[in-house]
């Protein structure tokens, strides 16, 4: 692996280590929704997927909490 790729990878993981993240299945369980709904929310822009690799995508739990708070505010 080239030095530039190593630096890029280290920077990405440094940023992500500062952010609480969860995989799609964890987000679905946390919100009490289906897995397909998590991906639907990502498609329509309610959640922002963060690609770690070609097979790993995570979501910011801060954004998930904000989505939940917004949904709760609409109900109340």
Question: What can you tell me about this protein's structure?
Answer:
By secondary structure, the protein is an alpha+beta fold. It has one domain. Helices cover 63% and strands 13% of the residues. The protein has helices at residues 3-17, 24-31, 35-44, 61-75, and strands at residues 21-23, 49-51, 57-60. It has a three-stranded antiparallel β-sheet with strand order 1-3-2. The longest helix has 15 residues, at 3-17.
Number of strands: 3
Determine Rg (CA atoms, Å).
Answer: 15 Å
Give the helix tally. 4
| Net shape | elongated
Number of domains: 1
- Mean of residue pLDDT? 87
Order of helices and strands: HEHHEEH
- Give the helix proportion (percent range): 55-70%
Structural class: alpha+beta
Question: In a few lines, what is going on in this structure?
Answer:
The chain is α+β, with helices and mostly antiparallel strands. The protein has one domain.
Give me some keywords for this one.
alpha+beta, 76 residues, 3 strands
Topology summary:
Elements: H1 3-17, E1 21-23, H2 24-31, H3 35-44, E2 49-51, E3 57-60, H4 61-75
Antiparallel strand pairs: 1-3, 2-3
Helix pairs in contact: 2-3
